[in-house]
């Protein structure tokens, strides 16, 4: 990878200080720490802004939920061993390994652009908003790609509330309280929801503006919103937005917005002073000026190793690159279906044909509900007489029993008393289950009724009986009475 440049320093040029550019430079300065200290390698990061913007937090920053400084990351603070150059790449000649940079100093002084040679190129300029030739869009449309646009949109919405509160013209008031968002992707839906919540909270401080006076409209050209998360989540989001009185218009396009009059493809026409455009993005224009191989959508054609296809010493990733997804399953050929399903056999006449074989285990025959009850009562199964039927233990020789599957051997099974199967009766189970076991002296099991929500049975440590035992209680008169212990009093002190 190392190629000696004119000044015997291998220069790695990272175009773009976004998510891909920042983490690429951060990983390189950690990996090439020794080379950077020796001065044999130089990492140069070129970006128009001195910070990286975390775009998923732009809706929260626009609504004031988080501070704008928490959305950006200063490049010079994170990349102390890299050279950060604030400017914009205007041309790339990969054959000569040079890039032309328009810096702020050159623009102020009127000097020529800086030509920067490099050995390795990492092209990650990101994307820009994709605009369509809609009349009036370039004049009144508001983007939502940078933190400056997010804060500007927040101030714009609050300004419209002030205009609606201070005017007496109903047309101006309606236009100020109508907010239109074009694009049903992540940016459009999140920005609309956050700003609507912020405006609903803010109108409580306006004496003549109510939340019902505002109109929030989401325009989407396709048949659903949020296509990245699936159709079910998209329909759920539409229901939630409409429950908040947000007008979601699917399969609708923006045709014109001249003179602050919005006209849609469904024939509706209304005034609006706020039009937010979030209808998709496209690759940065520097990608087309780099003369590198592109796809039909204007992105760099890359391999799975993030290398520009067919070009050495050139790498790319992010919104400007088209990287193949190796994890996507291949499209399988449709399997031919049977012409029809086999017919259901006729019902067996009495005395004809073999009888249907039944499962020997009633728990398996009756389905998962009975198996769940078997697991619930820990080896005790419920008979088929009903919900309030009595419970009997799993043991052979007891009539009316629904047999449950055997439990695995438990530790300490050899210490169990005679007459119990240690694989079916676990001494560590709850008191409620133990109280329903028959006594080993031959006494029949008592009838115990259980209802859902009742408190579990508790065993009295003194009498040895359960709180759910039924029958006559033993004679308490034969037991000696306990007298409370008395504590002798201390003699009073003379002092």
What is the topology?
Elements: E1 10-15, H1 19-31, H2 33-38, E2 41-47, E3 51-53, H3 58-63, E4 72-74, H4 75-78, E5 83-93, E6 98-103, H5 104-109, E7 114-117, E8 120-123, E9 127-129, H6 137-140, E10 141-142, H7 147-166, H8 170-176, E11 178-182, H9 186-202, E12 215-219, H10 231-243, E13 246-249, E14 254-256, E15 261-264, E16 269-271, E17 274-277, E18 281-283, H11 285-289, E19 300-301, E20 314-316, E21 321-322, H12 362-365, H13 368-376, H14 431-434
Helix pairs in contact: 7-8
What characteristics describe this protein?
495 residues; alpha/beta; 5-stranded parallel beta sheet; 14 helices; elongated; disordered N terminus
Report on this model:
- This protein is of the alpha/beta class.
- It contains 14 helices and 21 strands.
- Strands 7-6-5-2-1-8-20 form a seven-stranded mixed β-sheet. Strands 10-17-11-12-13 form a five-stranded parallel β-sheet. A three-stranded antiparallel β-sheet has the order 14-15-16.
- α7 packs antiparallel against α8.
- It is elongated.
- The chain starts with 9 loop residues before the first strand and ends in a 61-residue tail after the last helix.
Short summary:
This protein is α/β, with parallel strands linked by helices. Helix content is 24%, strand content 18%.
Structural class: alpha/beta
Q: Which spans of ≥5 residues are poorly predicted at pLDDT below 50?
A: 1-5, 337-343, 361-367, 372-406, 413-417, 427-448
- Biggest β-sheet strands, sense, barrel: 7 strands, mixed
Q: Kindly state the percentage of residues in helix.
A: 10-25%
Radius of gyration: 39 Å
Strand order of the largest sheet: 7-6-5-2-1-8-20
Compute the average pLDDT. 79
Shape: elongated
């Amino acid at each position: 990878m190392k190629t000696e440049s004119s000044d015997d320093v291998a220069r790695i040029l990272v175009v773009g200080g976004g998510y891909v550019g920042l983490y690429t430079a951060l990983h390189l300065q950690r990996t090439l720490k020794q080379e950077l200290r020796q001065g044999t390698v130089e990492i140069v990061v070129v970006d128009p802004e001195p910070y990286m913007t975390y775009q998923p937090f732009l809706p929260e920053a626009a609504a004031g939920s988080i501070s704008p400084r928490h959305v950006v990351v200063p490049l010079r603070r994170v990349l102390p061993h890299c050279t950060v150059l604030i400017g914009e790449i205007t041309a790339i000649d990969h054959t000569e390994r040079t890039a032309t940079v328009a810096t702020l100093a050159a623009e102020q002084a009127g000097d020529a652009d800086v030509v920067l040679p490099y050995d390795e190129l990492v092209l990650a300029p990101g994307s820009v908003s994709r605009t369509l030739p809609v009349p009036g869009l370039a004049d009144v449309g508001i983007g939502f790609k940078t933190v400056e646009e997010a804060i500007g949109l927040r101030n714009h919405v609050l300004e419209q509330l002030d205009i609606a509160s201070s005017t007496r013209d109903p047309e101006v008031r309606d236009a100020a309280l109508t907010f239109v968002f074009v694009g049903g992707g992540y940016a459009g839906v999140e920005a609309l929801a956050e700003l609507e919540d912020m405006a609903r909270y803010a109108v409580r401080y306006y004496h003549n503006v109510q939340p019902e006076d505002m109109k929030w409209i989401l325009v989407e050209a396709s048949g659903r919103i949020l296509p990245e998360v699936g159709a079910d989540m998209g329909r759920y989001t539409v229901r939630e937005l409409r429950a908040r009185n947000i007008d979601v218009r699917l399969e609708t396009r923006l045709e014109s917005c001249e003179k602050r009059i919005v006209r849609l493809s469904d024939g509706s026409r209304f005034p609006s002073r706020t039009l937010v455009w979030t209808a998709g993005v496209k690759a940065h224009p520097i990608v087309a000026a780099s003369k590198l191989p592109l796809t039909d959508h204007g992105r760099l054609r890359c391999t799975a190793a993030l290398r520009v296809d067919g070009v050495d010493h050139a790498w790319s990733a992010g919104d400007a690159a088209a990287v193949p997804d190796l994890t996507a399953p291949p499209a399988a050929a449709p399997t031919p279906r049977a012409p029809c399903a086999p017919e259901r056999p006729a019902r067996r006449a009495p005395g004809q044909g073999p009888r249907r074989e039944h499962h020997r285990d009633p728990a398996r025959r009756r389905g998962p509900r009975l198996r769940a009850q078997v697991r619930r009562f820990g080896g005790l199964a419920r008979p088929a007489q009903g919900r309030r039927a009595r419970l009997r233990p799993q043991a052979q020789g007891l009539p009316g029993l629904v047999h449950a599957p055997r439990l695995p051997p438990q530790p300490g099974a050899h210490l169990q008393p005679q007459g119990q199967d240690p694989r079916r009766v676990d001494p560590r189970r709850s008191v409620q289950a133990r109280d329903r076991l028959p006594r080993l002296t031959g006494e029949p099991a008592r009838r115990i009724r259980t209802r859902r929500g009742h408190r579990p049975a508790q065993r009295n440590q003194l009498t040895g009986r359960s709180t759910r035992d039924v029958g006559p209680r033993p004679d308490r008169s034969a037991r000696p009475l306990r007298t409370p212990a008395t504590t002798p009093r201390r003699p009073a002190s003379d002092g």
